[in-house]
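In response to a reviewer's request, we include the raw inputs and outputs for one of the modeled complexes. The two entities were modeled together in a single run.
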Amino acid sequence: MEKFIKLVSTAVPLPIENIDTDQIIPARFLKVTDKKGFGSNLFRDWRFDDNEELVTSFILNDPKYHGSILVAGDNFGCGSSREHAAWALVDYGFKVIVSSYFGDIFKGNALNNGLLPILVTPEFLKEMTTLIHENSSTNLCIDLENQTISIENHDLVAHFEIDPYKKICMINGFDDIDFLINNKDKIEAFEKGNK
Amino acid sequence: MDKKTLFDKVWDSHIVTSVPNGPQVLYIDKHLIHEVTSPQAFAELEERNIPVFRPNQIVATADHNVATKNQHLPIVDVLSRNQIEMLTKNCAKNNIELYGLGHDYQGIVHVIAPELGITQPGMTIVCGDSHTSTHGAFGAIAFGIGTSQVAQVFASQCLLLEKPKSLRVNVNGKLAKGVLAKDVILYIISKIGTNSGTGYFCEYAGNVFEEMSMEGRMTVCNMSIEMGARGGMIAPDETTFDYVKGKKFAPKGDELEAKIAYWKTLLTDEGAVFDKEYYFEAADIAPMLTYGTNPGMGIKINDTIPVLNDVSFEKSLDYMGFKQGEQLLNKPINYVFIGSCTNSRIEDFRVVAHYIKGKQKAKNVVALIVPGSQQVAKQIQAEGLTAIFQEAGFEIRQPGCSACLAMNDDKIPAGEYCVSTSNRNFEGRQGQGARTLLASPLVAAATAIEGKIIDVSLHLN
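The model returned the following structure tokens for the whole complex.
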């Protein structure tokens, strides 16, 4: 997993509520057996129409908006547990998703792939979305160490929460498997106690 | 003494250790896997040279991408075939029990584990599928996980998790005729929304759930994820014990008696406090139908679509081709799907058969019956339901997830409406451009007969 410490980037605003993982990556693309290449099908049915033509009105197809931060609407990543959604976002180039609510499983999947889900208040989200809409070159600054999200040259700043263990994992690029395997003795002892 | 919830009791008894100021290590009793979310996890372990820690606690099946016709023939779709072959190879290599295509126990993972007695009260159960919440119907902690977590469980039979908050949904009173478990859960989600359960584990309590069959309880718990909750649970009782007893992998004899004695302790203590609690009256619930693109967008079948000034709401109605304030009654429907991990158990098909017996489906309708498992399919045959479905013009398929997520060829064409007993009405869920209306098996059956939406409660004897 890639390390995540600080990030300054422009952002793509996608203020649609309840974006489920079926929209992020439709089920028909889940038939592969590796983790690569999902980015080309990210938001497939919103980016392309039935004739495989680009939907120019969709924000990801608007060259004005780009960057490694997706500023989404409320309840992002609800629905299916498919980790392919996190892989697709990472493969496309996103490193951070900002929302006022995240689906539980998606949030875990994101963190396990070095994709940082940042939870902010609905008011902050709205204000941030408006600023990006007004000026697409607006830079967002993410500081994981200090757990802050701010806007460059602007006084809009918010603190965000992250599980302290997950924060260490993100900053160092660790994952849970290492931790669990190092606890084998305890796991085996637990099994004996429950026999 | 501390008052504990059902969830606390099961969770606390599975804690291996805790990270200071961090998550807990939760021991997993049963790990269910399928072809779609496991290959990358097996690959991860192989790359890191880590063996599967407890292969005998893993059960595999093929369900998500399988064809529901001609399952005895080689799989035509190359990618699907590759996924199934990969699962077979991975299971053989790691000594994991696989109920693949052609096996008597094959079926939707959340249908087979309960019917085989793999699912038992007080267990922790995970699967790389969000509808793992189904197994909570037995008083188990069961929830969906991502593929990284599938790899973690392979490697250690454990997961690192923060304990979720607690939520209880109480429904008391008497359900009206024609109101099924599916209506109860669709009603709850329509009232509390799709994210009110996020961060919580839900317990369903009240006489409505106590009086439900295990099939009904599974339907309810199955859709816990649709209100955002990681899982849902119902306290085990005599209905649960009777269901588990005699199942293939259920404990037997003295072991069963000892287990039942323990399972009886898995009740929320009187006075235990939940972080959030909701109360509903059974009498307020009617046959339900969804009109939008998330499961919270549901109404009583004879109500009108709400009027709301909201961009996401308008986008959703636009996709569905519906207008604010209009009724769904009498809308023509060309597709009906009865299946999925929500409603593909024998009881669901009995309801359908009972309603359609002696009737004919409308000419405009394609009605699909997809049993949840080989065992359900056999039972349909044994109970003589096959003839009823065939005479009514319904098409009976072979077990799999089918048109619930349309990974195989069972897709609803773009623009068409499908009244479906599945769990998600997301855009494109049943095929690109398909429009899904979630309903109970009874509402689905009535729709197939009429070729349009009717108020089924007016058509019951």
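As requested, we also summarize the result in words. Chain B is about 30% helix and 15% strand. Chain B touches chain A through 68 residues (CB under 8 Å).
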